[in-house]
Amino acid sequence: MPQPSPIEVHAIGVVRSPFKTTTGMPIQTVAAAGAPACLDVFPAYAAGLRDIEGFEYLFLITHLHQATEKLEVIPFMDTQSHGVFATRAPARPNRLGLSIVRLLRVEGNCLHFEGNDMLDGTPVLDIKPYVPALDVRSTARIGWFEQGLAKLPTTLSDDRMR
Length: 162
Prior knowledge:
Number of strands: 8
Structural class: mainly beta
Helix content: under 10%
Radius of gyration: 16 Å
Number of domains: 1
CATH architecture: Beta Barrel
Number of helices: 2
CATH superfamily: YaeB-like
Strand content: 25-35%
């Protein structure tokens, strides 16, 4: 199979976070409800923020700049290895992250939010509004997460994804 052509993307901003290392930080935004951060949107993209204050939650699509790329991982909420596409582990091809954060306020090009599960300096590739009528699906089939979710409230990141 031929290698796909490279895709070029550019950061639209960076996250300013109190988390300087991955060890000990929350592993999902739902477990980081009160963890604050700011997304500094670069001036060239500021016009794209118009009307964003009308949304309570946002999707942030990020580049997990300090993660490695693996196809099999032992996720933070389990002790068994899984294919990376069956996990939300940061060690994955292309190192893309997806976080749902609660927008608190907009000050110029800075989006203050909580629900921060990102490292300081995380490049943000895109922002999309979270709209429950479009984004929420009810399901009973959640794979190995059915047992792993009980560990979420007390599980923090460690160095296993390096």
